[in-house]
Amino acid sequence: MTEHEHVRVAVIGSGFGGLGAAVRLRREGVTDFVVLERADSVGGTWRDNTYPGCACDVPSHLYSFSFAPNAHWPRTFSGQQHIRAYLEHVADVFRLRPHLRFGSEVKMMTWDADKLRWDIETSSGRLSADFVVSATGPLSDPKTPDIPGLDSFPGKVFHSARWDHDYDLRGKRVAMVGTGASAIQIVPAIQPEVARLTLFQRTPPWVMPRVDRAISAAERRIHQTLPLTAQIRRGLLWGIRELQVQAFTKHPNQLGLVERLARQNMARAIKDPETRAKLTPDYRIGCKRILLSRDYYPALARPNVDLVASGLGEIRGSTLVAADGTEAEVDAIVFGTGFHVTDMPIADRVVGADGRTLAEAWKGGMEALRGASAAGFPNWMTVIGPNTGLGNSSMILMIESQLNYMADFVRQLDVLGGRVALDARPAAVRAWNHRVQERMKRTVWNTGGCTSWYLDANGRNSTVWPGTTSEFRRATRRVDLAEYDVLRAGDRENAEVTA
């Protein structure tokens, strides 16, 4: 990267959101852009998460770009290595390599109100951009709890998203802290190898069986020869999930049947009533993300697994002490404790028009117009922004909708002409988020009786979209200029002279 490179668009991150933005920019005829990536390869969360058993809980044919179908998915639910390979394939097929800047972590980016551009400092140099697309993703920075005594633990410690493959777990006493989506995949993957596995469960999840199977060679040939068959498959997967949305957003009581199915799934493997009681949630299914696994409960039933139905409270040497006083001697600790979702670290590095960071602007909770634009941060948008998450479908659908919005944003800048920027009006941001939060009141995520990572420190759901993916696509089809202030070069100087 040259010292003072200037580009029309800078994209931050090379996961699904960043690569999707790059493809869409090229399709819009924009070639003057870079993709800034802190690592040395593309893939985002699917590059970083390499823990044993890592796989997606969304069917493969729905967890891929509509403009880049893959007829060769090996399984109905693909593993991490296949998804990462798919993203590498997208980078090659759409000729994105020349735009990629690896080893370029964004340290700070500041809006220049005079030049109407973003000045960006990265670990590999400086550059500026007229427009920034932040696609760092909510599952990029691991969160490790502050446990008293952790610093003095003599054994091995790592987070599931930073798996240490050089450390051999075979024959070790291992503690798994957390029972989220990663943990229910890790537990059955490592259980046969470790001497003893102790699972610290603060809150039990609802777990449904994952109906996973190999996709036959014949199926793959049909999809390759007749692409329409893959489109139909994707459409069916999408349609079923669209029909489920109302139960999550308007009628949570309808989820009782699903709870019974989840209890039956547990009962098939867990015969001990006391253990079943520990594993049974006390909140409505769907309040936290519903997890999918056929082998989680069978692994917990194995004789070398101990379930501690209490969070980890402190560490005394190699002894882990739960909040209820239960103790366990371990050689290694694996944290499956999630990510900085509602307090994304990138927000501390974005300085807007009034000198405030995005983190300061979002101190009371994340808010963005149509999940994309924050007031006071001109010509900046985020992919997978506030209230764009899903509880039952594929995030790729939401990403593609936001890419539609990004593409129209660029078109509007072209139509307006000259040095120009669009800044979301505070009133428009407030109105959009008021509508979202009003709809959120009826959802299972707010009424289900749980505390989840969907909620921020203020107890506000700033993560999930309370509607269907088709509703969101309609809402983000075009940029409404009435929701933005149009900034032109020279406006600030003229205002100062007039004053």
Automatic annotation (TrEMBL):
Signal peptide residue numbers: none
Classification via InterPro entries: FAD-bind_Monooxygenase_sf (IPR051209), FAD/NAD-bd_sf (IPR036188), Flavin_mOase-like (IPR020946)
Cofactor: FAD
Pfam families listed in its UniProt record: FMO-like
One function term, GO molecular function aspect: flavin adenine dinucleotide binding
UniProt key word S-adenosyl-L-methionine: no
Gene3D superfamilies: FAD/NAD(P)-binding domain (3.50.50.60)
Annotated keywords: FAD, Flavoprotein, Monooxygenase, NADP, Oxidoreductase
Domain of life of the source: Bacteria
Function: Catalyzes a Baeyer-Villiger oxidation reaction, i.e. the insertion of an oxygen atom into a carbon-carbon bond adjacent to a carbonyl, which converts ketones to esters or lactones using NADPH and/or NADH as an electron donor. Thus, can convert bicyclo[3.2.0]hept-2-en-6-one into the oxidative lactone products 2-oxabicyclo[3.3.0]oct-6-en-3-one and 3-oxabicyclo[3.3.0]oct-6-en-2-one. Is also able to catalyze the sulfoxidation of methyl phenyl sulfide (thioanisole).
PANTHER family: FAD_NAD(P)-BINDING DOMAIN-CONTAINING PROTEIN-RELATED, L-ORNITHINE N(5)-MONOOXYGENASE-RELATED
Entry similarity comment: Belongs to the FAD-binding monooxygenase family.
Name of the molecule in the record: Baeyer-Villiger monooxygenase
